[in-house]
Amino acid sequence: MSHRIYTDCAATIGELRANPARPIREAGGPVVILNHNRPAFYCVPAEDYEVMMKRLEDFELAEIARARLADGEAAERRA
For the whole model, what pTM was predicted? Predict the structure, then answer.
């Protein structure tokens, strides 16, 4: 079974154990950590993670706004 990889850089669990900061430092960005040639998890620099969380929050707020607008439009039609 093949797995989609979402980064350009990869490291193994063994490499991570030997020097945890090295894969991220060398990659300069996200790194997929492989266990038996399968993605186990991603290591993401703090700055990238913060950007991802802000975008996710923006997405969630936009969904709330859309739902409220839809509810408001439905209420206006009934009035």
Answer: 0.71
